[in-house]
Design brief:
mainly alpha; 0% strand; 77 residues
Length: 77
């Protein structure tokens, strides 16, 4: 029940923003591992036909973390 309350409040806020004169709405979702961030963001992206960006997309994979790259400014980015 508690989850439904925050979700309804969240959806109400999105509706309020949609009805404002804003041309762009950016929503950031953060939380613990396995908290449902990806599920929530995928659901919202589908419902609102929105662009979805995962912060993980900005990090290098293990194979890309070479000594030369790690020595460079920005390290894992």
């Amino acid at each position: 029940m508690k989850e439904q309350v925050w979700y309804q409040e969240f959806k109400s806020e999105i509706l309020r923003l949609e009805n404002s004169d804003r041309e762009l709405i950016i929503i950031a979702i953060e939380g613990s591992s396995a908290a449902g961030k990806s599920s929530l963001s995928a659901s919202l992206a589908a419902e609102y036909d929105a662009q979805l960006f995962h912060i993980d997309d900005f990090f290098l994979t293990a194979e890309q973390r070479t000594p030369a790259r790690l020595a460079a400014v920005g390290e894992f980015f």
